[in-house]
What we know:
Blueprint: E1 8-12, H1 21-31, E2 35-38, H2 48-64, E3 69-72, H3 75-80, E4 85-88, H4 95-100, E5 107-112, H5 115-123, E6 128-131, H6 148-159, E7 164-167, H7 175-180, E8 185-188, H8 190-193, H9 198-219
Bound molecules: the ligand Cc1ncc(COP(=O)(O)OP(=O)(O)O)c(N)n1, ligand 3NM and magnesium ion.
Cofactor: Mg(2+)
Domain Thiamine phosphate synthase/TenI: 8-192
Function: Condenses 4-methyl-5-(beta-hydroxyethyl)thiazole monophosphate (THZ-P) and 2-methyl-4-amino-5-hydroxymethyl pyrimidine pyrophosphate (HMP-PP) to form thiamine monophosphate (TMP).
Amino acid sequence: MDKELLRVYFIMGSNNTTRDPLTVLEEALQGGITLFQFREKGKNALKGKAKLDLAIKMKRLCHAYNIPFIVNDEVDLALEAKADGIHIGQDDEPLIHVKKRCPENWIYGVSATNELEARHAVQDGADYIGVGPVYGTNTKEDAKQPIGLKGIAEIRSIAGELPIVAIGGIKLGHVFNIRKAGADGVSVISGISHAEKVRQTAELFCNYSHFTASYSKNTK
Length: 220
Ligand SMILES: Cc1ncc(COP(=O)(O)OP(=O)(O)O)c(N)n1
Ligand SMILES: Cc1nc(C(=O)O)sc1CCOP(=O)(O)O
Ligand SMILES: [Mg+2]
């Protein structure tokens, strides 16, 4: 996959905002997010048809802005919504099974918290690795211990050329150091979905992430 898609990877479900989730997503798209993941889980998450309906509406919105639509965890939902990819965690259906029943041209993401998990993700043919949590987060109840910038750098060395994206507690002020540690981008939930001005905040994430990439290239 094109690693530029990971520059600002916005993730959201209906319970990550008190506003209309479609409005929040559209504002983030207007701000220039480069990839979107539908993650409908946890307290007050939608179920059944309401979940599928929201997924399809979000996919249409993403496609109107030429942004790929990824689904978290749920392979059947991703297939029904005709998504562009799936994100798989360590406790989810293994990537090698998932790949057998999904389109070849999908984007396949895998989570890793340590070098061993990253090594397996590379071997199993992931298109990118979600690395975290980098910092403490209130968004994911079962989040592991933060791995910090050192954790990103360690997984960067395992991943080789495979794109990696950092996740967990990421705010605007973290972007520079995260990119310098070797991540190709930042994956953000509350830093964007809870922002007072979603479009402007997404735009700032994009500018910071873009600036750091150019800065690092020119100082190597
Ligand atoms: C880009 C990205 N990276 C990591 C995750 C976390 O996946 P997982 O560990 O399966 O946890 P849940 O999100 O399912 O709670 C992710 N979703 N996206
Ligand atoms: C969904 C998720 N996965 C994580 C991991 O470590 O794999 S941390 C996390 C929550 C990210 O939300 P926020 O940007 O609000 O901290
Ligand atoms: Mg998962």
